[in-house]
Amino acid sequence: MQRQRGSGKTAVLVERIINKVINDNVDIDRILVVTFTNAAASEMRERILDAIYKKLEEEPDSVSLQRQITLLNKASICTIHSFCLDVIRNNFYEIDASANFRIGDTAEIELLKSEAIDEIFEQKYMNQDKGFIKLIETYTDYRGDEKLQDIILGIYRYIQSAPFPEKWIEEKVAQFDLDENIDFSSTIWGKIILDYTKDEVNSMVTVLESTKMDTARFPELEKFTLILQDDINKLNSISFDSWDLAYDAMNSFTWNKWPVDKKATVDFKEIAKGIRDNVKKRFAKNVLKSSSEETIQELRSMYGVLDEIKKLVLEFFEVYAFKKKEKNIIDFNDIEHFALKILLNEDGTPSDVAKKYIEKFDEIAIDEYQDSNLVQEKLLTSISRGNNIFMVGDVKQSIYKFRQAMPELFLEKYDKYKLKKEYEKEADGLKIQLFKNFRSRRSVLNITNLVFENIMSEKLGDVQYNKEEYLNYGADYPESDKEMPYAGTAELHIIDLKEEADDYCEDEEQCEKEERIEDAVIEARFVAKKIKELFDKNYMVFDKAEKQYRKIRPKDICVLLRATTVLAPIYENEISNIDKPVFSDSSSTYLESMEVETIMSLLKIIDNPMQDIPLVTVLRSSIFGFTDNELIEIRINDRKRTFYEAMLKARMTIKGKLKDKIENTIKCLERWKTEQKYYPLNEFLWKLYLDTGFLDYVSLLPNGNLRQANLKLLFEKAKQYEKVSFKGLFNFINFINKVKTNSGDSSSAKIVGENDDVIKIMSIHKSKGLEFPVVILASTGKKFNMQDLNTPLLMEQEIGFGPQYIDSDKKIEFSTAAKDAIRLYSKKQTISEEMRVLYVALTRAREKLIITGMSKNLEKTLKEKQETLDMYKKSNSMQISLENIESVNENERKINYKIIEKYTSYLDWLELIYEYNKENGIENTLELYIHKKEKLLKELSREQHETVNMVAIIERKANEVGQKENNKEKVRDENIDKLNWKYKYLASSKIPTKTSVTKLKQQGNQSEHDIEDILKAQEHDINVAGNIEPINYIPKFMEKEQKLTPTQRGTLIHLCVQRLDETKDYTIQDLIEFVQHLCERSIISDMEAKSIDINILYNYTKSPLWQELKYAREIYKEQPFYINIPAKEIYDEAEEKEKILVQGIIDLYYIDKDGKLVLIDYKTDKYGTSIELEEKYKLQLELYKRALEDATGKKVDRASVWPLR
């Protein structure tokens, strides 16, 4: 049964079951109902029970109905995993399993996997296994073998979705043992690549045809029209009948030279040239890189590597299975595979156990069938009679591809089964379509239909969205006879981030990061503003239970995000600021909270105090309360050994209070180390809470209740750990690290529940199956995550493996045709999945849909999208209005799928749709609002929010006390007066005592902002919009490999320049060797070495400055300095006696051959002359000059900026 969202699918399913039970006299325990969640199973039981009770009221003497109530308790209405567990527990002896097995905890399972893989690798190292060593050389680097371990574990996880994982990996690796004489186009990879390339070429022809039609309108552009026609003819002549035909044609293709005709004055010739140049760039990216023979040889050469990987994976299967059996546990994946092993014989036929289930169940009902995977499909078909499965689903809501769900299973049956009017025989399978929607208003259905009729097709989205797929209005929302705000057209709010004047930013990476943080906050604050407006204007929603309109409540609103980890806390904070209760269902983990990290650091140093970072963390915390100066004093005693050893030495030399602190700390650590051996871990942890007073301390901090709840969650995790077979503090620390890495069950504690009257913030995936009167789909400008397509080894269920070709000996690495094929296929699948995710998001709304997103430059992007759309439109395209939509061919309504493929965010698609339909009355379906960032910032100032919030809170508190009206006013006025009091020297009190040259320079560029904002920025590193956000520093050893930012590249150039020897004359080769030497000494990484522009260094060594340095008497590089300057010079509000300590680093100063003191500041700015740069960095140069003169007692004769380009 194919159904639409809100079409009453569950009701139909329940009604069918009830009809079977009541009218057909089928016992409820002879029906297997498989649901997606336990909650859905419970709800279904309740609805069936209610129906039976109602029927019993009509027939109180019915023995059959009374019997059904008894049978319902043991009826198989459950999730697929619950059913599989039941199969295993009742037939454990069939697979040689223990009767009292348990399901392992997530972190425990991860530890077992780590143990298994470590043991395998250790054995391979000991045996000097040649195949294994080859894998190590191919997939790892000097940092360790973790990358290869991740590949093995990743393959293991992925193939669990195959019914027979070992068989799958055997077959897919064997594909690489190719016959050398075949045409590569006959392989699964070749077909995908050729189909893609053919599509690309056809798309290019479409663009050139459109351009040619435009040039043909101008007689003077005849030459250009002929060139375009020649391009089209050549592209159309490319044959895709075989791999080599296509390869030869693509790689021998030549483009005619674009004519030069000064007589042609029509501007369009330049536009046409630009379009043609873009087509040429697209053509140059073709993925037919080598001939059929060469491609086959490349893949055959990967066979040996993949075979070794396969052996490792299969060995991991054995070792991991043995370890689980030892501990009498199974993991989540075992549940389905063990059940399948019980139900199927080795030859794939149903086992005796399966035959019993076939006999037992008269019908199998499957809910949310579109989310099934191959294992689940195999399981349920193994116990069916072939004609007794009732499947319910909507392929447009299949959004679990990351769990290996296969919407193809649904589509296969949807295409194969017949409608009732076409149904002839049982073997055909009957298809029932439900397209009436009983949940949403017309406005929600209209925007959903408009969006997907434009973008969803069989090419992208797997469904041809047409009038047969429309969401048809079936709800009964009464119109109100009163004038009140309710329902309303869907809204799209775009925040245009382009500012009127782009200020220069020296540190591009830092500025970009701050902008991202600021922009996310702006959108979140805007969403909070929209929510506040709904409450302020008393927006009304229809209450189905009360059957009348009522004022909106917090629980009526849901904010949907594609990903919640980073954004949900920001939205939660902003909505809290408007004094509305909010529940954030984010994936942030309590293990990353400050309080839990502190306790975990304490546990680490109790286990091993020779760990500097955890030790200093605990010493600096409230547990021991050391100050920065005290920690410095301890470190000075011994700068080379560990901090703990420095403490041991310091207690012998330091006297006074610090000595007492050190003595107390060491005694505590020694005592706890002894005690942890005798206490159960959870009890020991609670003792630490009590001994340190840390649990009470965190309760006094902001969000104290939440912090205490997080510490209690850690205690519960320790209690859980005690129940598993691992013991000891060290293992517990590893256990927690695994939980953090996996993060499957470590969400932060919540002091507000999701069932309370709160505004909900959740991911689109978690919202599936839910509905809300008002939905705000936010952050639609976020790009789709395509990172998985860049891994060294891609996998796809049908295609198999897509390895990167790596020759460790020759240092050669490139993408194989197999990887290209999977990347192309997976990208298309990802976009289709994102399309379905958007469908789920839009259909969560019942009455009002609001969409928000950010665009970097809206005018530019809309113009570009309109030009792209125009190119793909046929010359005879008809003007279509929303009124005559039903009379238009469905394909003419759709935006070309090649355009949709090009864009990778929901906002991009919505902008495309708006541009495509803007002349056809789209404003009646979707209202577009554009907000300029600068203007919005003023409207959303935090000061306004805080004032409104404080007044509201005070009024509410006064009401709660129940005082008389005049007393309320008095309390209110007194409190507001107190809260509005301001310190006379507020600005002066916030002047920093220490700052840097860079910050002062940045402040100089922000003169348009008021002094208070600048002071806040100095003190907290916040953006001027008022958002306090910490900048999280990631140490190098934790960073993932990525492209270097301009700032990082500039730092590398600085580093190289500082290490050059001014007495030498460098050649290009000398400089290449110089960089390689830095790399060999691990001063820079391989990736950093590749990013260094040798020409910049070469130009520097040939510059006049270099020649001066050759003959200089003295040279000083990278010299740090501190200088005290009057605060009044920077801040007008500062007191006369106030001073600021300014720190900085002088890149270079030297005494030239004539004895003159010269100061140089290097800059890697791409643009600007030396004079322009000196003016730009005037403040910096002045401070450097002043500091140098103070330090040397000499006058600086020359100070200048030297550009490194």
Give me a quick take on this structure.
With 1205 residues, this protein is an alpha/beta fold.
List key phrases describing it.
1205 residues; alpha/beta; disordered N terminus; 5-stranded mixed sheet; 12% strand; 48 helices; single chain; 7-stranded parallel sheet
Give a description of the structure.
- The protein has 48 helices and 29 strands.
- The radius of gyration is 35 Å and the shape is globular.
- 52% of the residues lie in helices and 12% in strands.
- The strands form nine sheets. The protein has a seven-stranded parallel beta sheet with strand order 17-18-16-19-23-13-24.
- The protein is of the alpha/beta class.
- α37 (942-961) runs antiparallel to α38.
Major sheet characteristics? 7 strands, parallel
Q: Got a strand count?
A: 29
Determine the structural class based on helices, strands and strand pairing.
alpha/beta
Radius of gyration of CA atoms, rounded to a whole number: 35 Å
Approximately how much helix is present in the residues?
A: 40-55%
Oligomer: single chain
Amino-to-carboxy terminus distance: 66 Å
Biggest sheet, strands in spatial order? 17-18-16-19-23-13-24
